[in-house]
Amino acid sequence: MAQSMKQVLILSAASLFSLTAMAQNKAILLKEQGALDKAKTEIDANVAEPKLSGKAKTWYTKGQIYEAIALDPKLNTLDSNAAMVAYESYKKALEVEPNGGKMGKEINEALTGKMMYSAMMNQGVRKYQAKNYDAAYAAMSMAAQINPADTTAPMYAGISAQQAMNAKGEGANKATYMTQTKEQFEKYGANGGRDATIWASLAQMYNNDKETDKALATLDKALKVLPGNRDLNATRVSILQSSGRVDDAIASMKDYYDKNPTDVQSALNLAILYDNKATEYEKEAKKALDSGKKGGQLSKKVADEKAVLDTYNAEAARLAGAIKKQPKNAELKRQLTDLQAKVVEQKKKMADLDAQMKEEAAKGVDGAAMQKNAGELTKKATETRELSKGYYNKVLATDPNNFEANFNLGVYYFNEGAEMKREVDNMSMADYTKNGKEVEGRVCGKFKQALPYFTKAKSVKADDNSLNTSLEQLETILKQFEGKNIACVESK
């Protein structure tokens, strides 16, 4: 009886093995015959069968069939998520039997193999083309996991995350999408990706998050991969400038330009950077000058108000003396009372001024020092503006039709003319009678120097509003000089 039962069990096990093998063999045979639709139907039925679903071979076979579907662009309608199903099937094969049983090696090779990578990328591309960016990201980021040394998958996974965020607009979970994008672009960079646009995009994301040092470190890594890349250098300069590190931006761009002296765009960028730096110096100079003037004005006010107080005190002493001689004189007493009230008021005014002086002193405001500093800053502004002009001229030497260089040089001479005109307007009548016509000739000449640059810029871009407004103002000013019979004297 015992021997008979043992034989039955052996036969049952053999029958089950035979059933499993037959089912799997049929599915694989259909796959090899190219009948993937029928192979899919067969394997789907197999994994639903309790006796078969506990076998690693069943799930491995499903992985193979779905992987083949994902790799065939004509069979996308069978299952648009076939690559993900294949991946999950291989993972399931490792679960139903510990580490996949005897098939562990084949299963693990399938999970990290080229076929699985290609299937996942194919699915990602199809999802991207269908504008299902979330699904595209899921597939491509999985492909990046399958092949950790790859650059293509993380690049497109990051782009897919960006597109998903853009497509959803205000409804997007931007923090999540930004994290996904950064992670994938970081993988891309770590694997030696050579697309400057991806590197620059990653750096800009960090910069937008106020992580300036991380943005610059990203660009430094990128420039080791792509040394001398102009776009990466320009992005680096832009980030330095936007973070207030103008001197660093100038140094960085100058270093690049010195190595690439024929690069017109870099010369233009340097000119603009020096232009902005000169404007910064001018603002600081004005602030220092205003502070210096305020300190000087306070000192003068104190001196003036003290003189008034001294006058009141002298008059009060005189009235007091007179009252001693005429103790019953009511008018003298009234005058003294009024004057004493004025003395009290004047002392309060003096106290207020003294408080203001102390406040300025606490700020470290030294009127004379401030005015000296303003002069030094003005000198720096002039020198920096000259450097800017030099680089604009270098641009035009190579590219005479460059709009920005022509327009900005026109602005340079126009502003110089405007500054000189202010000096003329502030002349006394005596000075103007003596030197006015001669000085106005130089002012006119400075304005006239702007004309050819504005005219050239207009020939390049006729519809620029800023240019047209500036040109109209310039033409009006030159007509005014002509109407006054002022001969324009041009200087360098």
Name the overall outline. elongated
Provide mean pLDDT, rounded.
87
How would you classify the helix and strand content by structural class? Answer: mainly alpha
Percent in strands: under 5%
Helix content: over 70%
Number of helices: 20
Q: Taking Cα atoms only, what radius of gyration do you get, to the nearest Å?
A: 42 Å
Distance between the termini: 121 Å
Number of strands: 0
Q: Helix and strand string, N-terminal first?
A: HHHHHHHHHHHHHHHHHHHH
Low-pLDDT residue intervals, each spanning 5 or more residues: 1-18
Largest sheet: none
Account of the 3D structure:
The protein has helices spanning 2-32, 36-48, 50-53, 56-71, 82-96, 104-111, 114-129, 133-146, 152-168, 174-190, 196-208, 212-225, 230-242, 246-259, 264-325, 330-362, 367-398, 403-425, 429-460, 465-483. It is mostly helical. α4 crosses α7, α8 (133-146) packs antiparallel against α9 (152-168) and α15 packs antiparallel against α17 (367-398). It is elongated, with a radius of gyration of 42 Å.
